[in-house]
From TrEMBL:
Keyword terms, alphabetized: Membrane, Transmembrane, Transmembrane helix
TM stretches of this protein: 13-30
Domain DUF1977: 30-101
GO-annotated molecular function: Hsp70 protein binding
Protein name: DUF1977 domain-containing protein
Compartments (UniProt record): Membrane
InterPro entries noted in UniProt: DnaJ_subfamily_B/C, DUF1977_DnaJ-like
Keyword set includes Ion transport: no
Organism: Citrus clementina (Clementine)
The keyword Transmembrane belongs to this UniProt entry's keyword annotation: yes
């Protein structure tokens, strides 16, 4: 029988180290990067354009094999690209309107783009 309490100390030390161990282990799990990005940046270097003219970039040179034009997956992906683009335009438009009200800017190019995109066909 141990009277100095060293077993309790070891258990407490292990419990205190557990979060650090979990963080280290989580670093080794594979991450799921998005399929596309709206701006070109590493590793998204292959440019594509949706039917409504929104540019997006993908990582894989096999993108057209994995997502053939007209396939359900490709249509769904392009719709998501357009939704993301629309959301970003709307956010930037709100900021421009706010800055315009404060007198910092006169023109609102993102609002113009947002309106043009909002009223273009296929939305």
């Amino acid at each position: 029988m141990c009277v100095d309490g060293s077993d309790g100390f070891n258990l407490r030390a292990l419990i205190q180290l557990l979060p650090v161990i979990l963080i280290i282990l989580l670093q080794f799990l594979p991450s799921s990067d998005p399929i596309y990005a709206l701006s070109r940046s590493y590793p998204y270097k292959y440019k594509f354009t949706t039917e409504r003219g929104v540019n997006f970039y993908v990582k894989s040179s096999k993108f057209e094999q994995d997502y053939p034009v007209g396939s359900v997956q490709r249509v769904r992906l392009e719709k998501q690209v357009e939704n993301d683009y629309f959301t970003i335009l709307a956010q930037n438009c709100r900021l421009e309107i706010q800055r315009q009200q404060w007198g910092f800017i006169k023109e609102t190019p993102h609002c113009d783009m947002w309106q043009k995109f909002q009223y273009s066909p296929a939305w």
